[in-house]
Amino acid sequence: EAKARGEGGYERYRPGMEARGAERSRRAAALQTAILEDQLVVFYQPVVTLPDGRITGAEALVRWQHPVDGLLGPNAFIDTAEQTGLIIPLGTWVLRAATHEAATWPGDHTVSVNVSARQLREVGFSAVVAEALHDSGLPPRRLTVEITESVAVGGGATHDNLSDLRAMGVRLSLDDFGTGASTLTLLASCPVNQIKLDRSFVGDGGQDAIADAVAQMARAFGMQAVAEGIETAEQATRMARLGYDRAQGFYFARPMNSVHFRDRLTTADTDVPVTSA
Ligand code: C2E
Ligand code: MG
Ligand code: MG
Ligand code: MG
């Protein structure tokens, strides 16, 4: 997208551009309707302990139940939301839905909510979080806000929002760790409670030196280390051995609707233990 823009951020004219512009505003209007008419749904993917595979909580992942196209994943609409600013109402909606849902879970299970850099720049974002916690009754320590390295660019109210969240007792997690350019810069200026190693480093063992170094760094900083995108027993065992204490991935469970997730929590025998860790 950035590449297509000329100097000053304006797109240079190309034939067919009007059609694309029209398509973009049509998608934006549809997304706005989706937010207003409750077509969005939150799915929950279990986060488990390593090596015993016990569920400690879930990551909230937004879906769009589109009236014509069916269930759409975030890759189909998050970019549009970011570009149009609709990520602000969308993000608030997800935050409120996820905190209200998690407040009804048994035990002290946690919920992780993805927050974009755009939301964090907004003055009053931390107040939106405080209100969601207050209205739902969810204790702040049971909410984790997932940020990405793009937050390091900062600007706007980013710094104030992050320090407000920390002061409230909300936990912070650094998502997709290792894929951004400014990881260490961000860690230096913004301590987080958790880092989630990007799934591109889980693979078949070829990246274990990096996975190992990240786990050691997490330990040194007193951060929890989560391995994302675990698809096989072998990967789970390897990540457990490297020192990851939490995991997420299709091997344990796919993202599921709130009813199915609640069933998983109330059924005792669904843990997926990792063998020979
Ligand atoms: P993410 O935060 O890194 O979330 C993890 C993504 O990896 C999810 O994709 C999940 O379904 C997928 N995943 C989990 N386990 C596995 C696995 O074992 N293998 C593979 N191949 N994939 C796995 P999803 O739900 O499509 O979400 C994609 C991204 O969209 C998220 O990445 C996050 O960056 C963004 N996103 C999702 N919900 C929200 C939201 O409410 N707000 C914002 N701002 N972004 C969101
Ligand atoms: Mg995430
Ligand atoms: Mg991730
Ligand atoms: Mg991601």
TrEMBL record:
Name under which the protein is recorded: Bifunctional diguanylate cyclase/phosphodiesterase
Residues of the full protein shown: 605 to 881 of 881
Residues annotated as domain EAL: 24-269
